[in-house]
Amino acid sequence: PGAAPYGNFPNYSRFHPPEERLRLLPAGLLRSLFPTEPRPLLGLDVGCNSGVTWGLCGRRDGDRGGGGPPHPAAGPDLQLLCCDIDPALVARARQGSPFPTSISFATLDIMEPSARAALLGSYLSRFGRSGFDIGFCMSLTMWIHLHHGDGGLRRFLALLASLCSFLLVEPQPWKCYRAAARRLRRLGRRDFDHFSSLGIQGDMAREVTQILTRDCSMQLVACFGSTSWDRRLLLFKASRQRGREAWEQEE
To answer: How far is Cα of residue 124 from the mean position of the Cα atoms in its chain?
Structure first.
């Protein structure tokens, strides 16, 4: 792949197929997390790329995609907001979505407070809600970290923790940081602003877990194993009541 300095690879799903993630998730995951939820669940997918990974979460229990096996997330009705920084990827995702009534796509730099507040506020107000039941953050933490530094990574994780009752995270390992920097150098581009000054290094799944549990009042519920590209799927649960003001405030 090319440099894609924000992780916005146009053909990401070809070399990291979404089915690889889905096979790691237990059957009926949403049903087990929300066994008595009468209202539709709200989900937030940050860094959705072209939408193929979590677009399938729009399936209902009765939709098996032509008689195939149930989707691992099958269960309660899920309304999903998918956002990405790349408008071309968002347009592709929107065009190819098989569930236009339950999945919304939007272009968003999640680290830009005013744009974030406008989009999330508008979406949540449609349902009379102040936060999301579950959030998905697939292979995005590295890009936030490289562009916004250690402080930016902490703010990003704190934001997701304030927004979501449950959070499924797939952190990139440190070797991916080095590979991303090498790709930029091979293309003759300037290095990431924060790469050489990052203090949070090493086992990034452990570092992300420590930030979420120590600083963001979340609990690690499960590790569903690792994908074939060596990234762990970690599920966290909020251990305190989140507040609407957390995502509205300026940083």
So the answer is: 17
Give just the sign of the alpha carbon dihedral 31, 57, 238, 206. Answer: positive
Domains of the chain: 40-58+73-138 (3.40.50.150), 140-164+172-218 (no CATH)
Number of H helices, E strands in the chain: 10, 7
Please state whether beta strands 232-238 and 218-226 pair in parallel, antiparallel, or not at all (unpaired).
Answer: antiparallel
Strand partners of residue 218: 238
Cα distances (Å, whole numbers) of residue 248 to 97, 112, 124: 29, 11, 12
| pTM, two decimal places | 0.83
Alpha helices in the chain (DSSP H): 12-15, 18-22, 29-33, 52-55, 87-96, 113-126, 141-163, 174-186, 204-210, 245-248
Q: CA 111, CA 62: separation in Å to the nearest integer? A: 37
Q: Are 202 and 174 in contact (CB under 8 A)?
A: yes
With contact defined as beta carbons under 8 Å apart, do 94 and 105 qualify? yes
Residues 125, 119: contact at Cβ < 8 Å? no
**pLDDT tens-digit readout, 178-207:** 998 888 888 777 788 889 999 999 999 999
pLDDT tens digits, residue range 117-145?
999 999 999 999 999 999 999 889 999 99
